[in-house]
Task: structure prediction
Amino acid sequence: MDTTHHTSPGGTDFDVVIRGGTVFDGTGAPGVRADVGIRAGVVAAVSPDPLPVSAGTRVVEAEGRWVTPGFVDTHTHYDVELLVSPGLGESVRHGVTTVLVGNCSISGVYSGTVDVADLFSRVEALPRDAVLAALEQKKTWSDPAAWRRAVEDLPLGPNVASFLGHSDVRGSVMGLGRATDPKQSPSREELREIDRRITAALDAGFIGVSTMTNPWDKMDGDRYRSRTLPSTHASWKEFRRVSRLLRGRDRVLQGVPNLNTKVDVAFYAATSTGLFRKPLRVSLLAAADTLAEPWVNRIFRPIAWASNTLGRGRFVWQHLPTTFKVWADGIDLVVFEEFGSGREALHLKDEMARTDLLEQENYRRWFRQDFEKRFSPRVWHRDFDDALIVACPDESLVGRTVGDVARARSLHPADCFLDLVVEHGSDFRWTTTIANAREKVANRLARTPGVTIGFSDAGAHLRNMAFYNFGVRLLERVYQAQRAGTPFLTTEEAVHKLTGELADFYRLDAGRLEVGRRADVVVMDPSGLDGESLEYHEEAMPELGGIRRMVNRNDRAVAATIIGGRVVWQDGEFAPGYGAEFAAGRFLPAGEAVGPRPVEASREAAQDLLS
Result:
């Protein structure tokens, strides 16, 4: 790290000085004690000596704290929330300064409003009426360049980069009905049009294409409900066309494989390889230690090694650096899409119709058979002894597991679960752990070559999970392990994995704290890394119909978040007007340097939007 006291020709006054912290620059270099000076949204000085402070300088005290680049969240589904709540405060208050949208084959770039609502709502467990209302109110674009301009006009909190969703573009070309019909294939002209639309997105600065071959993910709405997403119907020939386009532009293919069979992982790994051709950047879900298949965690390193070392590729896995714990209201949880009887129940939108189905003996027999299949591929362990009841109209059940209740009622666990859903509907709330429960394995995955930090799913599954503070959680685990004398990563390595490593892979101007670069900075207080990051909270979302979503609120860990040189979050408070009256973040195109947003231009854009 360059610790010389730098100043730019604009003078010696700084807009912001971060004083006396341990600065980690995002490269993996050890931290150094230094002041950081920010002027006009840019890091103007990193100095081991105290920087001068004038009357107009805002001082952020960082003594005993860590000063790092802002975290990069590579896997969000903020595409709709971005339109109605562009501050994205749940991420920013936990140190995230850059988010990637358009993951898992679904974006809202080319498709019409109803199609986008049907693509997003069931897959990402979002309220469809609220999604549709947001799109009808805000959608003004029909191509990637116009989408980019619309995003840049928002009073953004964090910086935003985007994939183009394969399901979005495929559905827009073929029509959503044909694109989700397994008997239909795109014509030659339609394939050429898909190519043209992808190319237009890459020209507009999109970082790549996201795709999906997992059959769990289903359409919402009344027209094509329960059909799998358009990208799941693409042929390998179509996937290879997409790969060629991305390879030629050094962009990224983000993918979700078939989580039942897992065999198409081989395609993603192979398409990344660079033998006798340019390698392709591929980011794949997900490196997780599932309770259902505890052996799977052993495959991630050799697959990445084979693709990257033998095949000279650019292949990485995404890993969530915390316990993958989920909550459900009744049977509303994506893991039930794994098997036929679960899909049949989720197909029914009406709760009364669903209740009628769950009461039928022939359905219960089917559910029990699915539940008891010992050797079927699965992500969910289907163990109701690890299904803790956390809310229920019958308060005597709260704090007990479904397995406990089944034994007390002398019932099969599956029948007991269905009884509870029938009795209490969505007021029956329970939680279970899906993956990453073994600390030793989780630590090994976090430091495995070819495994990157991601998969927060921020903005999706609002009632099911909350990983907005994934970066805080990793640093907390690293800090606690160091204090216990069992380190698995150094602090600088952990910071690098949350910042520079991700920015470099996705080719984004982010993830570094260096003189001359845009000032996206986090001030972390290690005294706040005390376990509070795992606590449960809920918060109403008036922007999306008032749904109460799960959130993280360990606010003592992040003392300040600075985006584009603006202190947008400090000591538990957002700046006045944040996410409404001014814009801090920028759209980040692939491979381009991006300066901070000029203050006056930011104010004018926000005023135009509000008027």
About this structure: The first strand starts at residue 16 and ends at 23. The chain has a mean pLDDT of 94.
